[in-house]
């Protein structure tokens, strides 16, 4: 049992600090690292801007950027309250990929201002991990930042999550010995994570995905859908279901919770035999795992205190390390698929109902993901 005191003590003063890589003991050290020596390096970069990545930390520095509008499942709690989460993401970059990372939280939700701010900050970092920015703004913001910056940019809640969900679903069906293509999947949540996870599953060959938002099934019959959801209605829900979670879950093989909502035990009870339940909302899963286990053969959450943790931490450190190692200008679909395969390959010989993906603490994961992503980047010709 972790106490509140332990939790707050663990965050006292934040979770990050800057360490020196240059000795600053002697007059000679200062003359090299600071003036006059530093001026020579600055002049060289002024003459050849590409040298900035060789002679500063920016080339391997990941900015973790949020506006605090969809923080975990806590919703729009603002930039300051988002900082413990963003520091945590930055700490995970360092721990698992050895990458320096800084949290940058923005006191605006305006897409124009967010994009403009990142363009202005571009000289300061080598990659951007967008985090906990709510839908539908997150789709436009990510697209515009990718277009504007010549460096790897990824909205983690979309693609980091999608990579790990694909790995976990492939892990679950490998344990059960059935093909992914025949699954009937229900995704609860049509936001950043729900839309991206649906798309990666459709691309992987899952034919029957039904998506729910807070008002029910995303279907062409709905008149209240934004553009993203209206387009989603065209490529999901192939049986034309209307209604809510009850209609979607009856006979379903897989439930994936990415909603911060709750799902009633009685509805999970209506799923098909050998059901798979990924209750991924943080910190509170859509259904408690011990309850889901009464009906489902495989149960996972996004949390660190239950088996089968499906969390984007399995993806983002290795994805960015691989992209930066390769000198990639952007992150392609192929790099994401390669990451999903690499995550699962790490645990392929150890798969079990309570181990459908490797543990986030498994030190093999980030290097394997990084290598696969770098190889995929070179193959796609997005390096250099
Ligand atoms: N385990 C992991 O690695 C990850 C987990 N998550 C979790 O997923 C959740 C959503 O995150 P994110 O996509 O970034 O958030 P967004 O704000 O982008 O989207 C939230 C979506 O959930 C929908 N929703 C809210 N309540 C319900 C409900 N009762 N039933 C069905 N849908 C509902 C919203 O509906 P509407 O559109 O109608 O408002 C919206 O579509 C969070 O809890 C987060 O912690 C996210 C990323 C990674
Ligand atoms: C894990 C994560 O990124 C989230 O819950 O938002
Ligand atoms: Mg997140």
From TrEMBL:
Keyword terms, alphabetized: Metal-binding, Oxidoreductase
Q: Which SUPFAM superfamilies does UniProt cross-reference here?
A: Aminoacid dehydrogenase-like, N-terminal domain (SSF53223), NAD(P)-binding Rossmann-fold domains (SSF51735)
Q: Which InterPro entries match?
A: Aminoacid_DH-like_N_sf, Malate_Decarboxylase, Malic_N_dom, Malic_N_dom_sf, Malic_NAD-bd, Malic_NAD-bd_bact_type, Malic_OxRdtase, NAD(P)-bd_dom_sf
- Please list the residue ranges annotated as the Malic enzyme N-terminal domain: 13-146
Q: Which Pfam families match?
A: malic, Malic_M
Could you tell me which residue ranges the Malic enzyme NAD-binding domain spans? 158-378
Q: Which family does it belong to?
A: Belongs to the malic enzymes family.
Q: What is this protein called?
A: NADP-dependent malic enzyme
